[in-house]
Automatic annotation (TrEMBL):
Annotated ranges, domain Response regulatory: 1-120
SUPFAM superfamilies assigned: CheY-like (SSF52172)
Name of this protein: Response regulator
Swiss-Prot/TrEMBL keywords: DNA-binding, Phosphoprotein, Transcription, Transcription regulation
Length: 215
């Protein structure tokens, strides 16, 4: 993986922690240009990107992340920041959403959870902090009105990267019930019967795009 973080202490700390967990860090970068070059040179499975990086410390990292998604379609991108920006989250998820993550630094309490998120993103999954999902959800949109409250809970947890088994445990319902809710979400979002994993990703993206900010 490649890590892009302008704080030297945090960057080196992440390298040490992730290496100890068996992850291979092939390069690090302190700015957006360095990130783009590192990915082009090493072609990693996943890039960890902070939003605000030099020189202006506004949105250079996120702009680079969106560019990487365009130039390297197979690359997993995990945004790891203290800033919850729903407009950029929606843009990052536009198009093919596979392999995207957005986590808030202060809410990741265990290295194991972060490593798990990295592996899911590298494998093509979608991992979003509940705060990001909640802020997108609060914007509201008509298509979501098709869903029952339970279906909204299920797709919300899907957007956070939970499996059907995990959702069943969190909602204290059977896994079969979750499967029925997921199937209903597919139907209400007008997703044709294709590969199950692909439909799941599309359902999450549809959900997030619909609750995202209007331009």
């Amino acid at each position: 993986m490649v890590i892009a973080e302008d704080s030297v202490i945090l960057r080196e700390g992440m390298v040490e922690l992730l290496t100890a967990r068996g992850c291979e860090v092939v390069a690090t970068a302190g700015d957006a240009d360095g990130l783009l070059s590192a990915v082009a040179d090493h072609l990693p499975e996943v890039a960890v990107v902070d939003i605000r990086m030099p020189p202006t410390h506004t949105d250079e990292g996120m702009r680079a992340a969106v560019r990487l998604r365009s130039e390297h379609p197979g690359l997993g991108v995990l945004v790891f920041s203290q800033h919850a920006d729903t407009s950029w989250a929606a843009r990052l998820l536009a198009g093919d959403p596979a392999g995207v993550g957005y986590l808030l630094k202060e809410r990741v309490s265990a290295t194991a959870d972060f490593v798990d998120a990295l592996r899911r993103v590298a494998a093509g999954g979608v991992v979003l902090d509940p705060v990001i999902v909640s802020r997108l959800l609060n914007n509201g949109t008509r298509p979501l009105d098709r869903l029952t409250p339970r279906e909204r809970e299920v797709v919300d947890l899907m957007a956070q990267g939970h499996s059907n088994r995990s959702i069943a445990g969190l909602l204290v319902i059977s896994e079969r019930a979750v499967e029925k809710h997921v199937a209903s979400v597919f139907t209400k979002f007008d997703l044709p019967a294709t590969d199950a994993d692909n439909r799941r990703v599309k359902a999450v993206v549809t959900y997030l795009q619909e609750v995202g900010p209007r331009g």
